[in-house]
Amino acid sequence: MKIALFLPALLLTASVYAQTDTATKTAAAIVKENFSDDWANLRHYEAENKLLPAPVPGEKRVVFLGSSIFEFWKTRLPEYFEAHKNYIDRGISGQIAPQLLLRFQQDVIALKPKAVIILAGSNDIASTTGHVTNKRILDDVKSMVELCRVHKITPILCAYVPINEYPWRKGFPAAEKIISLNKAITAYAAQNKLILLDYYSPLVDDKKGTRADLTIDGVHPNAAGYKIMAKVTDEAIAKALK
User: Fold this and answer.
1) Coiled coil: which residue ranges (predicted)?
2) Which residue segment(s) compose the domain that 129 sits in?
3) Is the pTM of this model over 0.90?
């Protein structure tokens, strides 16, 4: 009788233990992976890059390398990239110039483009604690240009969109900082006979910010703003690829 009672109890205990052990292993398996060592966020486009076929003969691929201004373009004016299958958007929101430089091998060179548009500097300025200078931003841009020369990619540098104030940094002299950076990039482009894509002039208002009808927050363009950017972008690309 005792044995008859003991066996069911033993089986029940074993079953509970097995379920607990499985649950523990499952919980361990779904622990969020730590990507703190991927500071440049290379994983962002890693899978997409693997699915991207090599350029076909005669294809003139152009990569858009930047931060949120480029990343949001795909959703706020998607028809632009749908109409230009050779334009590859590789913008990641919030990124600064050294992160773009770290991504350059994977998100530009490996994609074998004919040209790359490099839009850098605003996030460096916006998040500065006093250590970021135009020289440091420009040094990263210069390194990307040098990589372009080695791999026969035509670099297109950008005068950044006008920003009067960052919503998250009230009182910060954004307009003056953007103008100063644009002057440095423009001078470097002129000295080295590089193509300059001017996003500043066609968007600016009388307060040195983006016109209210062309932006959602004073920093990022809306669809109307992107349409204006599209026109000057196509003109710069045509010059780069001729």
Assistant:
1) none
2) 59-241
3) no
